[in-house]
Amino acid sequence: MQGIFLESVYKFLLLVHLFLTFLLVGCMSHNLLLVWGYLSGRFARKKRELSYARLSFWTYLLVFVSGALIYPYFRVRVRHEYLDAALPWATGLFEVKEHWGAVGLALLGCYYLLRRAFDPETEKEKLYFYVPLCLLLNVILWYKIVVGCYLTILKGY
Description:
With about 160 residues, the chain is mostly helical. The chain is built from 4 helices and no strands. α1 (about 10-40) packs antiparallel against α4 (about 125-155) and α2 packs antiparallel against α3 (about 90-115). The mean pLDDT is about 95. About 85% of the residues lie in helices and about 0% in strands. The protein has one domain (about 5-155).
């Protein structure tokens, strides 16, 4: 039987994926707090917020890539051998999670490019798009984390 791509380092890559996700959720959550402050006229930390937006984009990209690297093993050993056979609804939940992840990557790219192109203090009209976009990205991220943890718990039972 032929081995699965990167099967020998799956656990290591899964830990990398997990730690990058921790970093991402910290960046995105802190970014949301600073962006939310823009609505109250608090712009003192806009350089820090831009740094969080930049770090969030690159970290999301790394989380996405690390997830893609562990996907072949997951597809065969977890999804095919366990979820598809015993819990087909969980496979659907995973697929929805992954689709939102791809949408999130595209939206975060737009978010980061928008943030690089405007000054929140002087171009306040763009905040009506920027703030809800930041909130939506956090909702997508937290949805993916909760679903990912739930699916991991299912496999552990």
